[in-house]
Amino acid sequence: MNTRFEEFFIDKYPKVKSFALRILLYEEDAEDAAQDIFMKLLELPEIWSENEPEDKLLFVIVRNHLFNIIKRKVVERKYQQSLDLKNFGIDDIDLENNLHAKEQKS
């Protein structure tokens, strides 16, 4: 691994993870996000290869990555809720059919 990137990682990782934790609220999510961000940054040497990389650009990248995570979670949650509603509707119909069938047997 590039020594400059290692220095950059050691210096910036705690800040990135702390920022992610404040946004995502869960330690594991923050660690995953920080690791994903640094994997992307590894491919962007223009950000970390300078002697004094600019934090502003780094945190724009971090912020955008975190917003994408949140957007994805919102979409996943909406999809899960729509599935739950569909399943709830199917269960209601089955319950009505079962009750109707029992009433007819009586």
The count of domains is: 1
Runs in which pLDDT lies below 50 for 5 or more consecutive residues are none
* Portion in helices: over 70%
Radius of gyration (Å) = 24 Å
Give the CA-CA distance, first to last residue: 77 Å
Shape: rod-shaped
Give the integer mean of the pLDDT values. 84
Main beta-sheet annotation = none
Strand content: under 5%
Label the structural class. Answer: mainly alpha
Helices and strands, in order, run as HHHH
- Total DSSP helices: 4
**What's the number of extended β-strand segments?**
0
SSE order and pairing:
Elements: H1 3-24, H2 27-42, H3 45-48, H4 55-105
Helix pairs in contact: 1-2, 1-4
Protein name: RNA polymerase sigma-70 region 2 domain-containing protein
GO molecular function: DNA-binding transcription factor activity
Domain RNA polymerase sigma-70 region: 13-70
Keywords:
4 helices, mainly alpha, rod-shaped, 106 residues
Written overview of the protein:
The chain is mainly alpha-helical. The protein has one domain (3-104). Helix content is 88%, strand content 0%. The chain is built from 4 helices and no strands. Helix 1 runs antiparallel to helix 2 and helix 1 crosses helix 4. The model has no long low-confidence stretch (mean pLDDT 84). Pfam families: Sigma70_r2 (PF04542). This is RNA polymerase sigma-70 region 2 domain-containing protein. Residues 13-70 form the RNA polymerase sigma-70 region domain. It comes from Dysgonomonas mossii DSM 22836. One of its GO terms (molecular function) is DNA-binding transcription factor activity.
